[in-house]
Automatic annotation (TrEMBL):
MF (Gene Ontology): oxidoreductase activity
Classification via SUPFAM superfamilies: FMN-dependent nitroreductase-like
Coiled coil ranges: none
Name of the protein this chain belongs to: NADPH-flavin oxidoreductase
Family of the protein in this entry: Belongs to the flavin oxidoreductase frp family.
Amino acid sequence: MNNVIETMLAHRSIRKFTQQPISSEQLETILRAGLAASSSSLLQVVSVIRVTDNDKRATLAELAGQQAYVQSAAEFLVFCIDYQRHVELNPEVQADFTELTLIGAIDAGIMAQNCLLAAESMGLGGVYIGGLRNRAAEVDQLLQLPQYCAVLFGMCLGHPDQTPEIKPRLPLSVVLHENHYQPLDRAQVEKYDQTMLEYYGKRSSNQKQGTWSEQVTSKLAGESRPHILPYLHSKGLAKR
């Protein structure tokens, strides 16, 4: 096992940071690592908004669901699908295909993960902020995003002021299928549910109760940001 894999396997979300800043050299390295990520057909359809204005940070923390670390982290980055530059290059660009929206979301996720891995390799930490999509249109307006550019998620980065336990993941035997889709192994899921119960019981902060199965099926039983499709349509994306 090498240092890269060790860093990956040691991942945990950091939501409490010291006041120590991230140096400009570190931030540039992090962003260059992000730019080096794979890009479908080299379309490069991601833009990143670095938010340094404290008032905007405070507003974003509120819009994301009162997530205070959006304001307290050393850096806050917002990842966006961006076809605006392509439309400016050629007004004939048809950016409204759903496939292109998927490409933008996938590329942004890959780029962001490169950024986070680079940060963690430096001893920094971070957490994704999908809560920006709770009030996507307001975030969009605050950041003055143009047409064909839509907010996806944020990322806090900073020097960790906590060492949370690593959260267990589903066993590989449940996630990995060979040659064709395999039926769900409920025994493995039940074993994982027990593992998560024990994890939550021992976790030093943010205590939860209930199994993984109970949590995810409860979450998926209700609406999941139904305003997102109209928002994307308003940006000229995912229309067909």
